[in-house]
Every structure is written in C-alpha cells, then in structure tokens.
Amino acid sequence: MTETQTYTLIDGRKISSEIKGEILAKVAERKSLGKKIPHLAIILVGDDGASQTYVDHKVKACKEVGYHYTMMRFADTISEEKLMKHIDQVNKDEDVDGFIVQLPLPLHISVEHITEKIRSDKDVDGFTNHNFGSIISRNPLIMPATPFGVMELLRRYSIETEGKNCVIVGASRLVGAPLSMMLVEQGHATVTICSKYTKNLSSITRLADILVVAVGKPGLISADMVKEGAVVIDVGTTRVEGTQFKNGFALKGDVDFKGVAPKTSFITPVPGGVGPMTIASLLLNTLRATENRNP
Predict the structure, then answer these.
(1) What is the pTM of this model?
(2) Are residues 114 and 149 in the same domain?
(3) Is 77 exposed, middle or buried (0-12, 13-18, 19+ CB in 10 A)?
(4) Which domain holds residue 252?
(5) Which positions are catalytic?
(6) Count of CB atoms situated within 10 Å of the CB of 19
(7) CA-to-CA separations, 137 to 159, 190, 261, in angstroms, rounded
(8) Do residues 74 and 174 share a domain?
C-alpha cells in the first residue's frame, strides 16, 4: 500500500490460496482416516477457448488440493438427448461427489434442461432450483459458487454486512439474484438489486455501503457513482482487445478501478479479486458434498 492509498485491496488470489491450503489439510486428514476423497466430474462441450481455460484452472485446482477428478469432453454437435444420458451416468456414479457442466453450451442445448438434470446433492455450481431455493431456508445446501466466493471475501476481510445498505448492479441468476438472498439471509443486510432497466442508477449506487457490480460492462461504475468509504466488489470480467495491451487483450472489470479505488475503504481488483474465489468455492462445495454423503 502506498502512502496515498487509503483503501484496502481485497486479494482474492491470497484468500483462494488460503482456502486451498485448508482443504488440502482436510483431504489429508480424510485420507489418514480411510475416508472417501472428494471426486469432481467435469463435462465440457465444444472447443470454446475461454471454457477450456476455465476447465484447465479447475483441473489444476483439483490436483492442488488432492481431489480425484474426471474430465469428459464432447463435440459441440452432441445432441441434448445424448448429453442427458451422460449426465445420468455421472448422477448414478456413487464415486462422484461433485459434478459440473461448463457453460456456455451450444445454442441447440437448453442450459435449464441440463442444469436441472444434475443431481442436486452433486450440483457443486449451486445452479439447480433445489440448491438455489435452499439459500432462504434454515438449512442451506450447496451455495452458488461465485456469490459464495463474494460472501467468503467479505467474511475473511471482516467486512460488516449486518444493517448495511448493499446495492447489487446485475440481477442475473448466476450472481446478483442468489447473492442478494445470501446477503439478506446470512448477512442481515438491506439489499437493493438494480438491472439494466433501472433508471437513475447513480442515485442508487451512491447510497451503497457495499456495492457489488456484476453486469459485464467494462468501466460502468465511475467515481461519481460511489460514496466515500464504500466497499466495492467487482464481479465483472470482460476480455477487451486492443493493440495497446501487451498480449493483445486485457481483462477489465465493471468498475473504473483507477477512479473509484481512492474513494473506497475496500475494493476488489480485476483480475485477482472475485475470479479466484469462484474456483475456491467450487472446491469447498465439493468437499461439503463429499462430507454430506460420506461423513
């Protein structure tokens, strides 16, 4: 931190590494006691470069914490019916504890049909209606991975949520909607959700003690939209191409970091903020699924 920097950078890579260390220790303990080692199965359809990169990161993470894993690849021409049959096989495989189908899928395959086909106790992405709905129950099951990661960052940085005014920009089922419920149910916060239809967005974001942005629009949030001392969590990650970047592209968040950061008390960078926490949450969910089925 420089002398003029008054905010705290929320380091997702550091926290993710700490979580992996904790999981590795638990896996070693399970192994020493002769208990089942977590097993994650991953289905990848097609050859999308970004999806392949995400899957590679997940496989690497499994290796780091000592999980077993199964990688299943299919051409993007596979029918929905055939993919369903493969999902059935994984559902019935009692050695598999966690199961994900990497998104996006080809247009001829329904994400909703595929998601709901996954057994809820193996759904470590937390996408099924059963797990989604459990967020507001007294016994939440498997939490959606990215919102779970955001909550874990807030917890590990001792950022108070109780009674705080939280504004979420982005109402998607993947991030905004489940995170709003988690902040209310677990964080006891007051939550406002904004979408692309929200009018006078800046008048709402300026009221936020905790501002979460997850829309995939680089630089959407500028300094004049954030109040002094706010906590800012940037979930957006967009690949922006240009000759000015060393590799021909750069990952950009939804927040104008340079302009906004000096006004904040805590802020996540992009990359290196929420991103690493999604995989850490996936690992935590897989461990929980294993413990639920094999104490």
Answers:
(1) 0.93
(2) no
(3) exposed
(4) 144-274
(5) 58, 102, 125
(6) 21
(7) 24, 18, 36
(8) no
